[in-house]
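Sat 14:20. Reprocessing the chain from the morning session after the first attempt stalled halfway. Input below, unchanged.
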Amino acid sequence: MRPGFVIGNGRSRVGFDTRRLNVAGVTYGSNAIHRDHHVDYLVCCDKIMLGEAVSQRVEKTSFLHTRARWKESNNDPSIQVVPDLPYLGPNKADKPEHWGSGHYSALLACLKGHEIIIHLGFDLWGNAHNEQNNIYSGTNGYKKKSDDAVDPKFWIYHSAKLFEHFPETQFVFINAPDWESPEDWNEYTNWSKDTYEGLETFLVDYPI
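Finished this time. Tokens:
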């Protein structure tokens, strides 16, 4: 099976042409990525983002997923509900309402059975001033660029849950050479990190 590419909206992917990923594998993305790039699977857990995606999507070829409560209030028949989590847990972070669009995108990729899932733009941390590090910060549906960065503890936890529950899947995180990965992930052996240079080497046989 072709690899899965889960495209987050962290600023580390600025300058990388994501169109190449559609040639090399299956693409999964979240929220406002639809403004710039067609992905095979689009997840919008936020009601505002869902409304924008429904109204502005020119192509209906993306499989659009959202939370059940937002689907109920939308008549677009192409909308699907995000999948159930692969586990039950007692913590706040284990509740489906605390899983966001990015990690539901990753969960979809896991459930599709990709042997390798490559993540881009999952930066986790804020910028050098601990401000928002999202490509779309300051635009409709997003916080201002100068707002405090989101605490990444749930994101770190949710990735670890995917490592745990999909042990046969290899997860690769693409980022800058000096990107600091979470210490909590060190107990898992089915993930690794690489650079955009490494990704370019991987994609050499997949020109646009």
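The chain has six helices and eight strands.
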